[in-house]
């Protein structure tokens, strides 16, 4: 039971580069989410998806793009990375509205 | 928007002690969840609460959904070193599928 996996675990990139963080879940959960975690801010929602081909903005969507062509995958793309996007990114999923979130182990992204 | 307040930011206790953490909001929530995050890992669900007044235990952990639906608490009894980590409360209002998180409390346990 693989659950929810994120890749890569660590990534260093330069300002202005495009970078994609991957998220894959094996539960066929409808809902998937991307959060970023920063000191002093806790977990902030970037984007979420209620089903394949349905995505919506969260609290801090600027500078990010998502897609959900398949239920099991929810990649997050930084189109032109900035230093302020240095963070730990967590993907999460849940089966239905109001059921608990299950998190991946995160991707630590550093933008130099 | 909805905000969940957790304080203090850090707590330091002695091994064997009990500890209680609060989570409060000015908004009404329909579900309350408590998560724990170990260093280098994602948050893991500890307890989920779905009804006002609900009291649920998971081993040494007990959590309650406040009657006003604006707060929840988590108790850890007889703390052990592996209880160290960040404890987040989270909740949904039911109006949408988004989960709101508190900023977390970092718990340290002295042996």
Description of the structure:
The complex is a heterodimer of chains A (112) and B (111). Helices cover 0% and strands 52% of the residues of chain A. Chain A is built from no helices and 11 strands. The mean pLDDT of chain A is 94. Chain B has strands at residues 10-14, 19-24, 31-37, 44-49, 55-58, 61-65, 71-76, 85-92, 100-101, 105-110. Chain B has no helices and 10 strands. The radius of gyration of chain B is 13 Å and the shape is globular. The A-B interface holds A 31, 33, 35, 40-43, 45, 48, 50, 58, 90, 92, 97-98, 100-106 and B 30-31, 33, 35, 40-45, 48, 50, 88, 90, 92, 94, 97-99, 101-104.
* Head-to-tail CA distance between termini of chain B: 40 Å
Radius of gyration of chain A: 13 Å
Helicity range of the residues of chain A?
under 10%
* Secondary structure tally: strands of chain B: 10
Gap from first CA to last CA of chain A = 36 Å
Strand content of chain A: over 45%
Which sequence of SSEs, written as H and E, runs from N to C of chain B? EEEEEEEEEE
Strand content of chain B: over 45%
Number of helices of chain A: 0
Low-confidence stretches of chain B: none
Number of strands of chain A: 11
Shape of chain B: globular
Going by helix content, strand content and strand pairing, the class of chain B is: mainly beta
**Uncertain parts of chain A:** none
Oligomer: heterodimer
Question: Which class best fits the helix and strand makeup of chain A?
Answer: mainly beta
Q: Main sheet of chain A, how many strands, which sense, barrel?
A: 7 strands, mixed
Radius of gyration of chain B: 13 Å
């Amino acid at each position: 039971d693989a659950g929810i996996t994120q890749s890569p675990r660590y990534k260093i990139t330069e300002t202005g580069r495009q970078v994609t963080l991957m998220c894959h879940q094996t539960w066929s959960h409808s809902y998937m989410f991307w959060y970023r975690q920063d000191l002093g801010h806790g977990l902030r929602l970037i984007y979420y998806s209620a089903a394949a081909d349905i995505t919506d903005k969260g609290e801090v969507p600027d500078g990010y793009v998502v897609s959900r062509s398949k239920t099991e995958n929810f990649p997050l793309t930084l189109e032109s990375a900035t230093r302020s996007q240095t963070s730990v990114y967590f993907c999460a999923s849940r089966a239905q509205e109001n059921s608990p979130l299950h998190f991946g182990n995160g991707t630590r992204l550093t933008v130099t | 928007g909805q905000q969940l307040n957790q304080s203090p930011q850090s707590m330091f206790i002695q091994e064997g002690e009990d500890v209680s953490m609060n989570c409060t909001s000015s908004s009404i929530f329909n579900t309350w969840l408590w998560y724990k995050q170990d260093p280098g890992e994602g948050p893991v669900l500890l307890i989920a609460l779905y009804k006002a007044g609900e009291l649920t235990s998971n081993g040494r952990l007990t959590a309650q959904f406040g009657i006003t639906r604006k707060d929840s608490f988590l108790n850890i009894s007889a703390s052990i070193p592996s209880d160290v980590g960040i404890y987040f409360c989270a909740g949904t209002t039911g109006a949408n599928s988004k989960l709101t998180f508190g900023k977390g409390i970092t718990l340290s346990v002295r042996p």
